[in-house]
Structures are given as C-alpha cells and as structure tokens.
Sequence to fold (353 residues):
Amino acid sequence: MANELPADRLREALLKGGLNKDRQARERDANRQRRIAEKERESEDDKKGSKPTFLRPSDIAGDYDFKRALQTTLNMPEGMTRPLTREDLQAFAANIEQMKKAYKGGISVAQVISLSRQEDIDRANKEIKYAVPVGRKNGVFRFTTNSGPKSDVPNHYVQVEFLAFNELVFHPDRVKTTTVRNRLANGRVKFECDCGRFNYWFRYLNTVAGTVLGRKEGGFPKIRNPNMTGIACKHILRTMHWIKSASGQQYISQALEKERTKQVGAKYKTGKNQMVQHLTQQVAKEHLKRSQIKGNLNREVAKLEARAKREAQALIRKQREQETRHQAAIKLKNLFEQGILSKDEYDLLTKRL
Ligand SMILES: [Zn+2]
Fold:
C-alpha cells in the first residue's frame, strides 16, 4: 500500500464507511492505554509499577518525590534526557503560568495556526492536504484527514467545537455570512486529534489552556514538550485551514441554517458521495497557493521576544544604576576620609545617591 497516494487511501476509508465507529474505537484504545500508563505499568500483565511516567499537577506544585527520578529533555541537546531537578519543576510551573496568560480568553481558528510550530505547519503543507467533514452534533464538528507517509492508519480524526455555534442557532434572523466568518470560521474553538503528536505533545497544553476537546490530560509533557510551545498537530492545522476557506465557511453556514430550521441538537452524518466530493475538490486545488498554510509564529514569537528583551534591558539598566551608585558611595567616602569633603557635604551628597 506504500505506493498508494494519500488521497486514494483517504477515499477508500471514506467509501468503506464506519468512520465514527473507527474513531470511537481508537478513542477507547487510547483511553485504555492511558489508564495503564497512569498505574505506571507498561502493560496490563505487568503487575508491579516499574516505569514511572507521569509528572502530575501535585508534583509540579511541590510534592514531587525525587526518588521517582523522572527524566526531562529541558535544556538538553536533542534526543538526550537527564533526571529532573527542583529548578526544572519551577521552570515547568513558570511555563504553565506564562502559557495560561497567553491563552486567556480562548483561542481562535487563526490563532491555532499562528501559535503552531513552524515544523508542524511545514508537515501539514507537505503531508496533510485534505480535511473532510464527516458529521456533527450541535457545535461539535467531526473531520477526517489523510495521514502522513509513515502512518500505519489511512486517516486521522479531528474534532472541532465552535463555541459560538449554539448561540447563533437561536439567532432570530438568518445569520449573515460575515457573522459566520467572524464568529465561527474564525471564532473561538476547542479541538482534538487522535494522533500521537496531539496526545503526547499538545493535549496537556490544551488542557491547561482550556481548549481541549475530549480527554483532559494532567501529565506534564516533560520529555516531549517541556517548553510548552506549539499547540496543534498537522491534522488539526489542515482542518483549521479548510474551515477558514470559502468551502469551509459555506459548509459551516449550511450546517448552521439546517440547525436553525430543523431539529436542534440532532446528529448529522455527511453522506459518502458528499465526502468524496469534498475530497475531490481539495485534490483539484491542492497545488494552488491558497492551499498552503502560512504560519504566523515568527510574528508571535517576535512579540514575546521583544517583551523579554525590553524586560532584560530594564533589568540591566537597573543593575548598572545600582553599580554606579555603589561606586559613587565609595568615592564619596574616600573624599570624606581624605578630608576633601566636610561631614555636611558628605551627608548631603550621600543622600542624593
Ligand atoms: Zn493529529
């Protein structure tokens, strides 16, 4: 199957059907594995906890038992780990605080892209070209994307909740296109993906930010992402890019109208033909410039860096001033001791420092 094109693999999966069941099975499997890991076992047959894995919220708060000897990659060359120290825990707590501050008030569709790592955006542009709507219930929309060349599954599942959806459903007038664009296609969202990248790198971060859908993760990613950067995997990025597109906006708009005119809260499934049509449309457009996801991280990073630089400069200025004052005090003392300054003069000048 290695030679098969990603679009063909995805089309096969769409036509095979049972996508929702498949997604639920993967979710159950992931939850089961997570429970075993939580018990600090490598498998269910393993009776004794042999491999401590997770750094829990209470550990970061200061209850960490150093005998557990967990490893981290923080400030290490790529691929290397070392045992955790007290300073690491403080650094983690600081990273969490900073991230909470940055994401206060939620995250918009555009921000999911602009806050992502360039490497994830590059991967999405190179490998993940299609995101197809599979179904929805209320404001939670289900999508499936093709998978990367090394993946052992033909597709991945991304779920996105549009936080303004339910409010707009009860809007007395037909909702305008611009409203759909601003409040939904570029509105606040919660999201998740079933892939490993999301589960091991980004689920924790989105749990803390309040933007995760599904399972909440309490284990700090001390090995995979101790600096807490990035926010979404390549599958989520492609999905968000499609949501922002004209086709995505049209899809959401129709979904909203359906919800307003038919039964509220019903479950909707996209038909197979319709899903294949969505895919075919995207295959036809995949080489266009507008299919490229453009990251904005440099701008976001530049903002953060500029702030850090300003704070560092202020600190240096303060330190320099203190040093100058200190030196001046020594000089004045010398002048006083040499009899060049009188006691009154010395007192007056010292007060001015
Ligand atoms: Zn993913």
